[in-house]
Amino acid sequence: MHGAPSCIVKAQTAEGTPLPIDEQTLKEACIFAASYSKAWSRFTTASAYWVHPWQVSKRAETGEFLPTGAFVIRGKRNYEKCILAAAVGAVKIGDEELIMGGPPSAVQKWADRWVTVVPGTEDKNRAAAALAKQFSCSVEEIQAALPPGNVEIKEENP
CB burial class (10 A; 0-12, 13-18, 19+) of residue 96? Predict the structure, then answer.
C-alpha cells in the first residue's frame, strides 16, 4: 500500500553483539506495519513484507528517479498476510508505567494490563478516552498507541 509505514527490526545484546531475529518477530513487524497503515480504515486483512538489510538502498539505478525520503528494495520480498489487530498495554519499565502499542502478541508479552482492538465503528477518540480512564493515563498517550481510524475492542486483560 502506498504510504505504508516502514519498520526496522534490530536485535543486539547490551554490548552490541548482533542477535538472530526469529520468524515471530518478523511476523509482528509485518502486523505492526499493516495495522498502523491506511489499511486499518479500509480492510480487516492486509499484506506486508520483510526484506534483509542489504536489499534496501537509498540510491536509484542510472536513469531511475527516487523521491526524497524514498528507498529502493531489490530482490525477493517475503510477504505475510496479516489480520489487522493492535493492542495497547501498560508496560512497567523501572519504576515507571508506560503505554505501549503494537501487535497483540508483542504487547501481551510485555504488558500486565492490555486491550486488543480491531478495525471497527467506535470513534478512536471516544475509545481513547475510555481506555485512558482504564489505564490511568492521558488520552494523548492512548491516541498515540492506537492505529489510525475507528476501533472495536476485541479482548481485554484489565
Answer: exposed
d(CA 5, CA 105): 19
| Of the candidates 4, 103, 105, 101, the residue with the CA atom closest to the CA atom of residue 47 | 4
- Pull the grid cell for residue 148: 489510525
| pTM to 2 decimal places | 0.90
Question: 69: Cβ–Cβ under 8 A, 6 or more apart, which residues?
Answer: none
Q: Residue 148: is its pLDDT beyond 90?
A: yes
Contacts for 114 with CB less than 8 Å, ≥ 6 apart: 87, 88, 89, 90, 104, 107, 108, 156, 157
- Residue 34 φ/ψ, nearest 5 degrees: -70, -45
CA–CA dist 80, 46 (Å, integer): 9
